[in-house]
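This part of the workshop introduces the protein records we will be handling. Each record describes a single protein and holds just a pair of labelled lines. Instead of coordinates, the fold is spelled out as a row of discrete tokens. To make this concrete, we reproduce a full record directly below:
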Amino acid sequence: MKILVFGASGMVGQGAVRESLLAPDVSEVIVVVRQTLALSHPKLRQIVVDDVLDLNLHRTQLKDVSGCFFCIGVSSSGMSADAYKKFTHGLTLAVANKLLAINERMVFVYVSGAGADSSERNGRMWARVRGQTENAILRLPFANSFILRPALIQPLHGARSKTRSYRVLYRILAPVLPLLRWIAPGSVLSTQLLGEAMLGLLRRGASVRVLESSEIRALVEQSPPTCPAERESASPCAP
């Protein structure tokens, strides 16, 4: 498989890239970034652009991509409704339509969030916008598309949020997150598990197209990684 990742410098994107590089059935991981990642791997290819929509020069690379993991997202805190919608809905759909014109055979996986409202009537602005974005993606004629709605995410293996308030929150919660995962495994996921779930959707699909935290966890637990012994290392699994 050939994987494309948007948002590779963010916490969830870092997990998606790591698990994709570790997977023996992934031949190449392409990341679209504004700044070069401080990461080197034989399977990693970096497309560095000022505008993530500027993909015309890379059409050949993207024509045989198996799946796209779209992990770009921002907190709505401090943002106007128009600004949040432009970034969350506008950018996501612009990228998705650009990719669709290049390769409609890929699977598009969008990382949304718990509480997103697919009815688009929720009183919370961010929930409505997320729901509108999810619905628009599901209507696009990709080979398939899936929505992930994680709630609380535990960063593992050096993954780090770009949002300062989230970094502070994770530092505060770090001592209790393992306990929370044990008490409420359906509510607390890790960056590793999210990456494994995205790959699982490409390999096997799922019975539903919108997956809440408990369904994301179940997807991975029902079909564990190909080489579980190597999941804690930084080395790729043996072929």
In short: Confidence is low (pLDDT under 50) at residues 228-239. Helices lie at 11-22, 59-62, 81-102, 125-139, 164-173, 177-183, 191-204, 213-222. The two ends are 13 Å apart (CA to CA).
